[in-house]
Structures are given as C-alpha cells and as structure tokens.
Amino acid sequence: MEESARLTRPREVVWCDGSEQEAERITKVLVDQGRTERLNERTYPNCLLHRSDPNDVARTESVTFICTRREEDAGPTNNWMEPAAAKEKLSALYKGAMAGRTMYVVPYLMGPPDSPITRVGVEITDSAYVVASMRIMARMGQVALDRIGRSNDFVPGLHSLGDLHPDRRFIMHFAEEKLIWSIGSGYGGNALLGKKCFALRIASWMAHEQGWLAEHMLILGLEDPSGKVTYMAAAFPSACGKTNLAMMVSALEKNGYRVWTVGDDIAWMQPGADGYLHAINPEAGFFGVAPGTSLKTNGNVISAMHSNTIFTNTAMTANREPWWEGMDAEPSAGLPVGLPAGLVDWQGRSGAELQKPAAQPNSRYTVPARQASSISPRWEDPGGVPISAFIFGGRRARLAPLVYESFSWPHGVFVGATMASETTAAATGAVGVTRRDPMAMLPFCGYHMGDYFEHWLTLGRQIAHPPKIFHVNWFRKGSAGKMLWPGFGENVRVLKWILERVNGTGKAMETPIGFVPAPDALTLEGLNIPKETMEELLRIDTDDWTAETEETGKFFEQFGNRFPAELHEEHAALGRRLATAANARK
Ligand code: GTP
Ligand code: SPV
Ligand code: MN
Hints:
Elements: H1 2-8, E1 12-15, H2 20-33, E2 36-38, E3 48-50, E4 64-66, H3 71-74, E5 79-80, H4 83-94, E6 102-110, E7 119-125, H5 128-137, E8 139-140, H6 142-148, E9 155-160, E10 170-174, E11 179-183, H7 188-191, H8 194-210, E12 213-215, E13 218-223, E14 229-235, H9 242-246, E15 258-263, E16 267-271, E17 277-280, E18 285-289, H10 295-304, E19 310-312, E20 315-316, E21 322-323, E22 364-368, E23 385-393, E24 403-405, H11 409-417, E25 420-422, E26 434-436, H12 449-462, E27 468-472, H13 492-503, E28 508-511, E29 514-517, H14 531-538, H15 542-557, H16 565-585
C-alpha cells in the first residue's frame, strides 16, 4: 500500500471494512462525482445507475497481457510483455495518477469464508465504482483481513483509472509473482480485479501448479423428481448464456425438475476425497448482461435486481427505473416492442437526442447472489459441490447440434479444445465473427494453452469419477435465419437428458462426433416444435464436420510441441469416423 501510494500520490488512503456505513459513504461519493444516480427508491431501493466513460464499456483483450519471464510460457494465444518492461511502462503511467483522488484499499475473499478452496486478494483502486462493485461481487473488508492475518498469502492488485484514454490502457498479469496491474479502464473484467484477472488468469496458473481447475464456468444443481440434486458446470464464452442457464426457471418444474444456482461465471474445482471434482463459486454476486434479460428469459434475476443492485450503462425510464432492449419483449423477438415515453439512454440523452440501442449492448447489472430465489442451499458449502457433468457450448448458427455427449474424458477434452463461438459485445472488437475459444478460456487462460490441455488430461486420469463431458448449442439457425430452439427455461429439457446419461438411463444414438439423443429421448411435451425442426437441431452434417475438423487441425498447429499427443490422436480418430460415415452414405 505504501509503495503504491508513493507511486500514485493519492490525496488520502481509505481502508475498506465492508460495513454498511462505508457503503453509504461510497454511494455519496459516486453521486457527487456525477456519473452515478440513485434509482427509484420505492421500486428499486438502494439501486444505482452508473454511466461509464463511453469509450470504456467492455473488456479490452488487445491490451491484456500475461507477463511471464519467458514468452513461450504465456503461449501463442496471449499477448505477452517482459515483466520488467511492463512494470517500467506502467510505473510511468501510475506516477501521480491518483493525485487529488482517494486511494481505496479493498481486501476481499474469492470463495466462502471458511472454505479451503477460497483465496484472498487485495485490490488498490482509485475508483469508488470499483469499490461499490467489489462489495457485491466478492466478500469484502474485515472478513478478508481476518483470513489474511499476518500472512502474505494474498494476490495483490493495483488499479487506477488513469486518464481513461484507450492508448494508455493496460491490464497486466505477472503470473509468476501472482500480481495484477491495471490502468486506464473502470469497466468490468478490466477493473474488478477479483474476477477475470485473479479468479481466472492468475488462478488458472495457480491451479496448474497445484493440481486443480479455475474455469469460466457456471455451476448449477438440477433437482429431479426424487429430490436428488446433481451438479453440473458449463463453460460458454462471454455473453453466450451462462447466467441464464444457471438461473433458469425450469419449463419442467411441474414434472419435478428444478434448477438451483451455485455460480454464474467462474468455478474453482479441486479433487475431493470421494473421487469427484468439487466446485465452489469464488464470487458473491452476478455481473450479468442486461439486454435480453426479461421476466420471460430470466425471471429469477429480474426479481433479485429490485434492491441493492448497480446498473451500468443501461437506459432509464421517466419513472427512474432501469431499462434495456428486450426487457419487455418476447424472448425470441429480440427487438423492443417500443421505447417507453421519456426514456433516457445509456449516455443520459433523451428526446430527439436519444440514440438506439438505448442501453449499451454490454450494459450490465451487479446483484448480490444471495438475493436470487434460485440460489442453492449449498452455494456457500465450504467443501464445494461434486460435479457430475461438464457442458461446453457457444453460439454456432450452423454445425453444432443441440446437444451431444463425448465418448470419453480425452474425447471430451478434445471437444472443449475445439470449441468455437460467434463473438459478442462483452469484449471490444467485431461482433458475430466465429472464433475458436477452447473451454471458453481463450481470453482468460493465464498460461500456455498446450499445457492447459495437458493439465486437463492429467487431472481426468487422477480422479475416480471425472465428470461426463457434453456440448450444447442453443443458437442453431434454420435456412430462414431464425433460431430453431426456444432456449432459456426450455434448456432444462437438455439438462434432463444429460442427467439421464449421467445416471445411465438416457437413450442415445452414436454418431461420428459423439452420442446425440435418440428420437423421443428428449422430453418435448408442451413445446410446439415440428419433427423436422428437431431433426435439423440434432443433425450431424458429415461434410460440414469434415471441413470443421480441417479447421481445428490448423488451429492446433500453433501450440507446437506443447500440444498433447492424445489430442492429436482424438483429432485423427474423429477424421476416421467421419470418413467411414461419408463412405457408408455413398
Ligand atoms: P458473461 O457474463 O459475459 O460471461 O455472459 P454469460 O455467458 O453469462 O451470458 P448471459 O447468460 O448473460 O447471456 C448473454 C445473452 O445471451 C443475453 O442477451 C441472453 O438473452 C442471451 N441468451 C442466453 N441464453 C440464451 C438461450 O438459451 N437462447 C438464446 N437465443 N439466447 C440466450
Ligand atoms: C465476460 O466478459 O466473460 C464477463 C464480463 O463475465 S467481465 O467481467 O467484464 O469480464
Ligand atoms: Mn464471463
């Protein structure tokens, strides 16, 4: 703290204790700064609307670096900078950066207070918005100081808004030192250092060293009619449906199937004495995508966000309530029914000045997890929850069927390693471009991805009950360009089949890429989907898959000799199965 203060020269230093009085003080500071307003005190008590700088609205992967001593340890998928050069560059930017500002010292826990899987971080920041957000997203203040005690076992992070100029924005990870330096952005994963920087990039490095997993995964429990809850973890890239799946209102609730939320974005998993991987949610809140969130798509989060919630870059109604595109629309319609009268857009413009979309596409809500009615009774279980299934998925307008199951752990790792998805507004850059995103970790793996795949393979061999591995795609489109699957609460039908496969009862057909549900194996009662649409949703096109397999081969080349031979074998085996299927068809 002293070292940081000498460098950044703040007007004052405030140690955060996590108390209610402190929260009230921070809110006053935010409101005085002029970018934050209190929302309707009657319908949204203790809720804030924050407007970020218009050029600072999403994670910026191009200025995110892994600073290892040797470049090859960061691997071909990360930006790399030599640690001393990175420190020199950022020291110059940090110099006097907090002049006239308050420096907050924020101790925080990632994980439940009494879990052995939990780790501690301390973020130093000059942003009151970051403090208010960390208070929701992590267990912050005295509880973390108590755990640190006199030890130095915590991950330090230094964050400054700097001048918010994109040319002077950097997010640096000194993986070997387990240190984070971030400057020039106040938004999301760039600034809330406990989230992507610590809980994924630094933690994935620690997990590789120590034999566990830190993954970009939601954690849910699926309750069956007998009352038994089976836990699953799912990795989808940013803005591809983790929060919605983790919090879904099940379409099969009257049949006895219900979804319990453990986490919506990150899972830390360690092998347990029972031979299962045990997962905790290191976070304490949800930082969720606002557009598209409605009573129909995610009723649980809509009810949860009516108090103690920060909305960032959403629009606001004349009644001082938050608003965004899709809030009152039908889930599949996408476009708003119409704009409410007197709406103020995400930059505070109204009337003739108002711009569309009125809510920034990556606008978000920050809500305490405990406020969700779907929160699992075991979400703070110090031992974590045992995971029976991993689910990979992404946005694929073509190719990937609604669901399939891998043949084995190594094949499942191959399925994760070959994941691809169309890009979204969660990161700056083009939207809708298909990119490879292994395990949804492309922007978040803190080390060489070849080593990461090897780590997955090794871990699977070490545990008696590795999760079964599945792949889903809620986003397949028909020839008319319309999505074929209704998604959201209906996705429980797919979870039910996954549960049945885990229990050994689900019926399946073998295809070259894995097992897909047999006709009639999915419970579709109450859904009006034509038979041909279901066939299209589950169809495996051998030609498309052969082309895809060539693409994945090229993608793998960059990992060189750190790429596991076992995955090369999986790749070749898939090629052979596809060739056999193509010949049989001829
Ligand atoms: P991050 O917080 O960025 O990691 O995103 P996430 O993976 O949690 O994604 P989220 O659940 O917030 O969903 C992002 C967007 O996808 C929202 O606009 C949702 O409405 C939409 N979405 C989520 N699930 C489905 C689905 O099953 N079908 C369709 N069509 N859209 C979905
Ligand atoms: C993501 O982009 O995957 C997020 C949002 O969860 S952020 O915290 O900004 O990384
Ligand atoms: Mn995420």
